[in-house]
Design goal:
CATH superfamily of the largest domain: FAD/NAD(P)-binding domain
Strand content: 25-35%
Largest sheet: 8 strands, mixed
Structural class: alpha/beta
Radius of gyration: 21 Å
Helix content: 25-40%
Number of strands: 21
Bound molecules: 8-demethyl-8-dimethylamino-flavin-adenine-dinucleotide, P-hydroxybenzoic acid
CATH topology of the largest domain: FAD/NAD(P)-binding domain
Distance between the termini: 44 Å
Number of domains: 2
Length: about 400
């Protein structure tokens, strides 16, 4: 067995792990990043697409925003569509000038991988048998196998950035974590299509047949989602059925027509809300999806992952530079404030916009009333806008 040593052992090369490595490197703090997938796989995994203003500022301020500034699509509003009509929420006017940027998560991942390689540091891809040990001691360890060789990595602290299905959260002894969870009785079917945008902003549609979302990735690529049954089989959704449902759910009384294109990618994702408290144990700190999940309706998942590691990087920097533990000790409490706000917003958007199998007509009238209130009242619209563009970092 080969033994290695680092200050921060980072498990997972998603947005959380990669940004953490980058922020630490800028402070002269050593880290080792291990990832069980291949580089090509993580660089092409299609997921989130919306960056809050604060996430964009964080990436720019830390020197990884060059391509984001060139290729990111800045949006000043979103549309809520229901009853055959669209209603624009002017986010910028309602938030004193803030906006969001549409830029694929895999592009953020590519930029961060490039920054690490350009800084002369490596990412250990395609490792297996990853385990953490001694997390409640002063020398926590990560063991893994790389190219057939068993490696023990001794760390000062471990960052569990290995997503919802990772190994870090389950390594915390039973009884330490409290779990708060909700699953939803539907999933999202998402497609990427080689079609130029039909509209220049995102459209969230509430329809009798279920929720639909119109989004995009670039001037050539449209990203679209449909609410489907939770256990739906993608085989039941040939391309023609997907387009037909998208047309129905997104249509307006004035004849708006969605542009079609070749479907490059299709997938179904379940929806859940999930939080563990606390987000730390001993010398291991959980960040991003390893600690919490939101349904994608609020576009918050990637943004929360980035916000967590911003807090963790600051806390680790204070610890390594001065020995002060206060910020590390406060890590979970600091992050959970933002996490629970995003949990609420994501649950609220999800509840307002989807059809629930248990809905009766009363419930549908309530949803319609809520939608009409949000688009008709400036304070209600401002509340949505403030949450959607993201609350400032504290
Ligand atoms: P990730 O991206 O899952 O990265 C975790 C990494 O850890 C690796 N890993 C391991 N590595 C080593 N050893 C192990 N044992 C490991 N186990 C796992 C994995 O291979 C992976 O590379 O977590 P991270 O960094 O916390 O980032 C979170 C985001 O990926 C996630 O929250 C978002 O994608 C959620 N999300 C959205 N978030 C937004 O902010 N805005 C959006 O518009 C948005 N839209 C979405 C979304 C997620 C979606 N899906 C796929 C659920 C739309 C969809 C459809
Ligand atoms: C996306 O473009 O993938 C996207 C946009 C907004 C959401 C979720 C996903 O709320």
């Amino acid at each position: 067995m080969t033994s290695m040593r680092t200050q921060v052992g980072i498990i997972g090369a998603g947005p959380a792990g990669l940004l953490l490595a980058h922020l630490l490197q800028r402070q002269g703090i050593e880290s080792a990043v291990i990832e069980n997938r291949a580089r090509d796989y993580v660089e092409h995994r299609v997921r989130a697409g919306v960056l809050e203003q604060g996430s964009v500022d964080l990436l720019n301020d830390s020197g990884v925003g060059a391509r984001l500034q060139l290729e990111g699509l800045v949006h000043h509003g979103i549309e809520l569509r229901f009853g055959g009509q669209g209603h624009r929420i002017d986010m910028t006017a309602l938030t004193g000038g803030r906006c969001i940027t549409v830029y694929g998560q895999q592009e953020v991942v590519k930029d961060l991988i490039r920054a690490r390689i350009d800084a002369g540091r490596e990412i250990m891809f395609e490792v297996s048998d990853v385990r953490v040990a001694d997390i409640d001691s002063s020398a926590p360890k990560v063991t893994f196998v790389r190219a057939g060789e068993k490696i023990e990595l001794v760390c000062d602290i471990i960052a569990g950035c290995d997503g919802f299905h990772g190994v870090c959260r389950p390594s915390i002894p039973a009884g330490v974590l409290s779990t708060f969870e909700r699953t939803y009785p539907f999933a999202w079917l998402g497609i990427l299509a080689a079609a130029p945008p039909t509209h220049d902003e995102l459209i969230y549609a509430y329809h009798q047949r279920g929720f639909a979302l119109y989004s995009m990735r670039s001037p050539e690529v449209t990203r679209l989602y449909l609410q489907v049954a939770p256990e739906e089989d993608i085989g039941n959704w040939p391309d023609e059925r997907i387009w037909e449902d998208l047309h129905t759910r997104l249509e307006t009384d004035d004849g708006w027509k969605l542009r079609e294109g070749a479907i490059a990618e299709k997938g179904i994702t379940g929806m859940r809300s999930f939080v563990v408290e606390p987000m730390q144990y001993g010398r291991m700190f959980l960040a991003g999806d390893a600690a919490h999940i939101v349904p994608p309706t609020g576009a918050k998942g990637m943004n929360l992952a980035l916000a967590d590691v911003r807090v963790l990087a600051q806390a680790a920097t204070a610890y390594f530079k001065t020995g002060a533990r206060a910020l590390l000790d406060a890590y979970s409490a600091t992050c959970l404030k933002r996490v629970w706000r995003a949990e609420h917003f994501s649950w609220w958007m999800t509840s307002m916009l989807h059809r629930f199998p248990s809905d009766d007509v009363f419930q549908q009238r309530l949803q319609r009333s809520q939608l009409e209130y949000v688009v008709g009242s400036r304070p209600a619209a401002a509340s949505l806008a403030e949450n959607y563009v993201g609350l400032p970092f504290s």
